[in-house]
TrEMBL record:
It is an enzyme of class 2 (transferase). Belongs to the polyribonucleotide nucleotidyltransferase family. Keywords: Cytoplasm, Magnesium, Metal-binding, Nucleotidyltransferase, RNA-binding, Transferase. PROSITE patterns: KH_TYPE_1, S1. Mg(2+) binds at residues 484, 490. This is Polyribonucleotide nucleotidyltransferase. The gene is pnp. SMART domains: KH (SM00322), S1 (SM00316). It is found in: Cytoplasm.
């Protein structure tokens, strides 16, 4: 019934298995990939024909994690998987980025790649497994995919690179880098690093590239046995050479003039006018879709040719110069920390909010539930590019850019025990013309320092571009939006003056060489150091103390056996403290208590209350207490929080007392002295001995 094809190799100390022919046989390509005990089913399906009028490649990648893969039942009311998690979105992008450039030119059929995690051993992250599976499924599908690609994770510990470190090993590594590419070169890099040098980062990329070559060979071996017949690509419905010539003749000079305009909106208006002219003039000879596609190619030729020929770019800069920078902090009066970072026509308003551990994000992952105390959210409203558009929940791009900035900042954050705040940073991109994610990195660094978060060092980021032709190439620093769209590379590098903290690279051609990456990293370092210098004009380090609008967190420690007393039955005591003082209180299992309030008086009141609860009464010490019960033989007084002691009738006053109620009433505030403990540990108190010490006569208030 099944014709199963199976390949396996030893890779990174574990067995990697590819299998096809048994599951999902109606898909164009389906491969079950197992690494360790992590298993992912990857499928690829494409429509037989493109939809009319489609002038782009409609590729969708969906990575999905099933709870049953880790032996879990989903939470929530419906008990089933819902909207994609942040990780699912990020891994979907991770798979999409290296495969997208490898589909044949002119292929416009709707294509979908689905990677489903079926088993997770909690050691091997499914993301690499899914990337390998997606490559294999496309390679055997017959769809015009010019792969395969390979992928690997690289760690770095004790000066040594580690191939495909386990999830626990990544926690102790100085590097978490994912690299993907072909036999010829690298296509995609995503990483977080602990201030590593450019040389170490480049070495990690090449280490990964070398070590995923056996995976590429394995996929080729599988395809030789199991691949379907390759699809025939339809010939263009028009004479491309003739259309290119007519476009150059009709609007070539107009487009060249447009790309000498340094202001983005003015440039776009002139380009739009040239395109409208081309559509009108050539409408009888060619269809609008063909004209639009070739017009984009004309734009690319003109921009790229000018850079390679003259070394000058759209806005007049050379290849290494960074646009003018203005950094401002404290721009919002009520925010805990804020910064406005402007670089050319790209601008980010970045705001930091400090919270308590009650504000931590609870993440329910396949690996288990954990809490995140640093959140970075990136928003890209349509007005930032002068457009009117849909406003809604963040898309894949927003989530991806936010995570890149998160990775850049994360290695420099103070330890939680040193700075016990939950940090939420929001970047509102208010203008965009290239590299808003790197503007977010710069703005986040300034905003956190403005809030008083003690970053180890400021962090900056820069986006690099590439123009590569047969006769040469040029690496561009701090790219514009047009240089990104019409260029061959988007290479983002973030870090400090010490080293790199995040590196992300996307290649739009088949691959790039080690030489180009080395030049790009060196040029990026120069640009990053320049940007850090410009940022230092606003703020050189974290402010002393947190912003006056932020909560003050005071940490105290109490004995573990006293935690129950502070919380009280059903949380009664801690709720009363919070309600009465207005402070927030968090208690850890080890007895660490964090008390927070914007008003220090509220915090002090709560701390005193807690100290009173956990303190032990000391002999001959005078305390202030409250009469909670009056009986014939004395009065019970509450002191030190919830502790009660008895003032015997003989210890109420200097003179003989006939009735206890003649001296005190329930609710009275009194001073009492500890004079002893009975056999059961109950406290004996005296008001009389306080009178002797102070010379005061405590009598009933009613008198």
């Amino acid at each position: 019934m099944f014709t199963v094809h199976r390949k396996e190799i030893e890779w990174g100390g574990r067995k990697l298995v590819l299998e096809t022919g048994k599951i999902a046989r109606q898909a164009n390509g389906a491969v079950l990939v197992t690494y360790g005990d992590t298993t992912v089913l990857c499928t690829a399906v494409a429509a037989k024909a493109p939809k009319p009028g489609v002038d782009f490649f409609p590729l969708t990648v969906n990575y999905q994690e099933k709870a049953f893969a880790a032996g879990k039942i989903p939470g929530g009311f419906f008990k089933r998987e819902g909207r994609p998690t942040e990780k699912e979105t990020l891994v979907s992008r991770l798979i999409d980025r290296p495969i997208r450039p490898l589909f044949a030119d002119g292929f416009r059929n709707e294509t979908q790649v689905v990677c489903t995690v079926l088993s997770h051993d909690l050691e091997n992250d499914p993301d690499i497994v899914a990337m390998v599976g997606a490559s294999a499924a496309l390679t055997i599908s017959g769809i015009p995919f010019l792969g395969p690609i390979g992928a690997a994770r690289v760690g770095y510990k004790n000066g040594q690179y580690v191939l495909n470190p386990t999830m626990d090993e990544v926690e102790d590594s100085d590097l978490d880098l994912v690299v993907a590419g072909t036999v010829e070169g690298v296509l995609m890099v995503e990483s977080e690093a602990k201030e590593l040098t450019e040389e170490v980062m480049l070495g990690a990329v090449m280490f990964g590239h070398t070590n995923f070559q056996p995976v590429i060979n394995m996929i080729i071996d599988l395809a030789e046995e199991a691949a379907k017949e390759p699809w025939d690509l339809p010939e263009p419905a028009y004479d491309r050479k003739a259309l290119k010539a007519r476009l150059r003749e009709t609007v070539g000079s107009d487009v060249e003039a447009a790309y000498t305009e340094t202001v983005k909106q003015s440039r776009y208006e002139k380009v739009g006018a040239a395109k409208a002219k081309a559509l009108e003039t050539l409408a009888e000879e060619f269809d609008a879709q063909s004209i639009g596609f070739e017009f984009k190619e004309l734009e690319a030729d003109i921009l790229r040719g000018a850079v390679l020929k003259t070394g000058r770019r759209i806005d007049g800069r050379d290849t290494k110069t960074v646009r003018p920078i203005v950094s401002e902090v404290g721009v919002l009066p009520r925010a805990h920390g804020s910064a406005l970072f402007t670089r050319g026509e790209t601008q980010a308003l970045v705001v930091t909010t400090l919270g308590t551990s009650q504000d931590e994000q609870i993440i329910d992952a396949l690996e288990g539930e954990y809490r995140e105390h640093f959140m970075l959210h990136y928003n890209f409203p349509p007005y930032s590019v002068g457009e009117a558009g849909r406003m809604g929940s963040p898309g894949r791009r927003e989530i991806g850019h936010g995570k890149l900035a998160w990775r850049a900042i994360h290695p420099l954050l103070p330890k939680k025990e040193d700075f016990p705040y939950t940090l939420r940073v929001v970047s509102e991109v208010t203008e965009s013309n290239g590299s808003s994610s790197m503007a977010t990195v710069c703005g986040t660094s300034l905003s956190l320092m403005d809030a008083g978060a003690p970053l180890a060092r400021p962090v900056a980021g820069i986006a690099m571009g590439l123009i590569k032709e047969d006769h040469g190439f040029a690496v561009l620093s701090d790219i514009l939006g047009d240089e990104d769209h019409l260029g061959d590379m988007d290479f983002k590098v973030a870090g400090t003056e010490v080293g790199v903290t995040a590196l992300q690279m996307d290649i739009k051609i088949t691959s790039i060489t080690e030489e180009i990456m080395k030049i790009a990293l060196g040029q990026a370092k120069d640009g990053r150091l320049h940007i850090l210098g410009e940022m230092s004009k606003a703020l050189t380090g974290a402010r002393e103390g947190v912003n006056e609008n932020a909560p003050r967190i005071t940490v105290i420690n109490i004995p573990k056996e006293k935690i129950r007393d502070v919380i009280g039955s059903g949380g009664k005591v801690i709720r009363e403290i919070v309600e009465q003082t207005g402070a927030k209180i968090d208690i850890d299992d080890d007895g660490t208590v964090k008390v927070s309030a914007v008003d220090q008086k509220k915090s002090d009141a709560a701390i005193e209350w807690i100290k009173g609860i956990v303190a032990e009464p000391e002999m001959n010490v005078v305390y202030t207490g409250k009469v909670v019960k009056v009986v014939d033989f004395g009065a019970f007084v509450n002191f030190l929080g919830s502790r009660d002691g008895l003032v015997h009738i003989s210890e109420l006053a200097q003179q003989r007392v006939g009735k206890v109620s003649d001296v005190v009433s329930q609710g009275d505030s009194v001073k009492v002295k500890v004079i002893g403990f009975d056999d059961r540990g109950k406290v004996k108190l005296s008001m009389k001995q306080v009178d002797q010490a102070t010379g005061e006569d405590l009598t009933k208030k009613a008198e």
